[in-house]
Amino acid sequence: MSRSITIAVDGYSSCGKSTMAKFLAKELDYTYVDTGAMYRAVALYALRNGYAKGNEVDSAGLENALDKIDVAFGGDGHVLLNGEDVESEIRSMRVSECVYKVSSIAAVRAKLVEMQRKIGKNGGVVMDGRDIGTVVFPDAELKIFVTASAETRAQRRFLELRAKGDATSYEEVLDNIRKRDYADENRAVSPLRKAPDAVVLDNGNLTIDGQNKELLRLCREKGVEVNGLRG
Ligand code: DC
């Protein structure tokens, strides 16, 4: 029997964490959990219900409304906000502009971290986020910390948004990424940190193929069966 481990994929925004985590989940037949999508769903709720406008967030109001917010994942992995599939809407710039403020609210983090621990309690998960290897699952067997320059990330995100018909400029995307990096590294609760035992992967330097091979090698090293071969 192969081991069903917990894999934490942490790093800055738009650095390819979800591509890596999805690849691993598919290869290993594990559950993929996009924790950023959960924070984004709460941010969307805040925008829709008058607790956020632009990047101004009414933290106390949102905290009081937390009981009315249900975040879950559908069978297709899409995030559900009070039962509604909001997978596409949570990727908009409107949400990106306020999500870093929403994710700095301690009560929001407490609620979502509790849910993440429940989802991952039996192992066999690949969870991507900022604090998975440090806070959510400090005992995760495999921790990966992904990096790439802000410019590389902005260029990728800009192309993604443009493909969806979003007219946000490269400069605006870069500015938003820098703001989110700053917020991620400097928030009082669970700031983005590399766990001491995390493996660093610089996504700017690797081809997709090279990256995938390295990810599978790291799994084999942990005794996980990959393609029927135990490494
Ligand atoms: O990964 P992403 O860009 O979709 O994340 C959206 C926001 O949520 C981002 O501002 C960082 C925050 N986040 C967090 O604070 N903790 C996590 N585990 C995941 C995301």
Description:
With 231 residues, the chain is α/β, with parallel strands linked by helices. Helices cover 46% and strands 18% of the residues. It is built from nine helices and twelve strands. The strands form four sheets. It has a five-stranded parallel beta sheet. Strands 5-6-7 form a three-stranded antiparallel beta sheet, with helices on one face. A hairpin with a 2-residue loop joins strand 6 (79-81) and strand 7. Helix 2 (35-48) packs across helix 5 (106-119), helix 4 (93-102) packs parallel to helix 8 (170-186) and helix 7 (150-163) packs across helix 8 (170-186). The longest helix is centred in the C-terminal third of the chain and has 17 residues, at 170-186. It starts with 5 loop residues before the first strand and ends with a strand. GO terms for molecular function: ATP binding; dCMP kinase activity. It is found in: Cytoplasm. Belongs to the cytidylate kinase family. Type 1 subfamily.
Task: Briefly summarize what is shown.
By secondary structure, the protein is α/β, with parallel strands linked by helices. It is built from nine helices and twelve strands.
Break the fold down into its secondary structure elements and pairings.
Blueprint: E1 6-11, H1 17-28, E2 31-34, H2 35-48, E3 52-53, E4 56-57, H3 59-65, E5 71-73, E6 79-81, E7 84-85, H4 93-102, H5 106-119, E8 125-129, H6 132-136, E9 142-147, H7 150-163, H8 170-186, E10 199-202, H9 208-221, E11 225-226, E12 229-230
Parallel strand pairs: 1-8, 1-9, 2-8, 9-10
Antiparallel strand pairs: 3-4, 5-6, 6-7, 11-12
Helix pairs in contact: 2-4, 2-5, 4-8, 7-8
This protein binds 2'-deoxycytidine-5'-monophosphate (DC).
The site of 2'-deoxycytidine-5'-monophosphate has 13 residues, from helix 2, helix 4 and helix 8.
EC number: 2.7.4.25
GO molecular function: ATP binding; dCMP kinase activity
Organism: Candidatus Enterocola intestinipullorum
